[in-house]
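Researcher: Next entry in the queue.
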Amino acid sequence: MKKIDHLKVKIFADGALKNEMLNMHQKTFIKGLTTNPTLMNKAGIKDYRAFCKDILTVIKDKPLSFEVFSDDFTDMERQALEIASWGDNVYVKIPITNTKAQPCYALVKKLANEKVKLNITAIMTLDQVAKVVDVLNKDVAAYISIFAGRVADTGRDPIPMMQSALLVMKEKPLSELIWASPRELLNIFQADQIGCHIITVTHDILKKLALVDYDLDKYSLDTVKMFYNDAVVAGYKL
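Model: Structure for this entry, 238 residues:
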């Protein structure tokens, strides 16, 4: 099994707690960071602009993705241009559609042609990938974020789609594929194996990195001890 530092896939930390983000930024194996309005709301963030700008005073040397949150494409464009102005390392997350299921392709094309680095997010079909690739600017970096974990939640294997997406994306060589919403540590190694460029990983999963290549006999004994100790603490009797 490869050690985490030897993987080709780039690990991006996904979260919205300032201390955790700054801690992850310091780790050499973390190559970038992402967040979204849902994570920020759960973290209790009230001032979107202030939070993002505060993080950017420290994180200047790794890519950082912030998402627009308007449901209107004209206002999305305004938000995207402001977010992009906050730093050279900023990627602007644009959802693949708005809540009315209207696709974002025209907006992506316009922003890409204005040299905005984009992270097109919440993608779950190969058709969406192909249409995004078609409107990207070949001279501007972009991320295409497939929510592989959510695809897997539906009982579908996301790996064939991810492999096909990589082939489609060769048309725009500055685009990079993100394996988003992973469900377990194994997904990092799966993403690496198929040649996926990036995987976004929550802090809960990153905490499991200490288990990489852990001795399975010892892990088995640890589990037995956990069951026994919890039964003792609970005072169970038969």
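Model: The two ends are 43 Å apart (CA to CA).
Researcher: Noted, moving on.
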